[in-house]
Amino acid sequence: MKASLSKLAYPSESKLSEEQRLAIRDEANAMTTHAFRNSPIESLHAGIVPYTETGDYTDVRVVTPKGEIPWNELSRINNNEMKELMIRASESLAGLLLLKAEAPDAFDMVAAVHRMAYARNWDRTLPEPPAELVQWAASLAVEIQESHDGSDRT
């Protein structure tokens, strides 16, 4: 398995047409809106946005019992909130992927509604192919495999 993982690579040139690439981005935009709209992120997004005169929030500080924290250094989400957000997004995406596999026409309709309602003005371009992502995943998979090779699996 290690040898096959280390040889994984992303194609140097896309085999997709520009229309197919745009469709992928449209689908990703729609899935993102579905995963995050009306999710726990909405309650994190709610509230008062601090006023800044500089525009970059370098003039904003949060006062705590232990002192001030510059706004740009402040964590705005705790580990439990992040976990809840990621689980909810994963559940939502899994539901969409099931719909796509089992009822493609219904998926296309849901995706179109999300695009029109929420992502109509979003960027449609795709980033460069994620070759580094494939390399990272392959090397991490090898590390995980090596760390489990000597472990007891009873």
Number of individual domains:
1
Average the pLDDT over all residues and give the rounded result. Answer: 85
Q: What is the structural class?
A: mainly alpha
Instruction: Give the amount of beta strand, in percent.
Output: 5-15%
Largest sheet: 2 strands, antiparallel
Gross morphology: extended
Q: What are the low-pLDDT stretches, counting only 5+ consecutive residues below 50?
A: none
Summarize the structure in words.
With 154 residues, this protein is mainly α. The chain has one domain (2-42, 52-147). It is 57% helix and 5% strand. The chain is built from 6 helices and 2 strands; from the N terminus they run H-H-H-E-E-H-H-H. It has helices spanning 2-6, 18-36, 40-45, 79-102, 104-118, 131-149; strands at residues 61-64, 67-70. Strands 1-2 form a two-stranded antiparallel sheet. The radius of gyration is 21 Å and the shape is extended.
Key phrases:
mainly alpha, 154 residues, 6 helices, extended, two-stranded antiparallel ribbon, 5% strand, single chain
What's this model, at a glance?
The protein has one domain. The protein is extended. Helix content is 57%, strand content 5%.
Give the SSE map:
Elements: H1 2-6, H2 18-36, H3 40-45, E1 61-64, E2 67-70, H4 79-102, H5 104-118, H6 131-149
Antiparallel strand pairs: 1-2
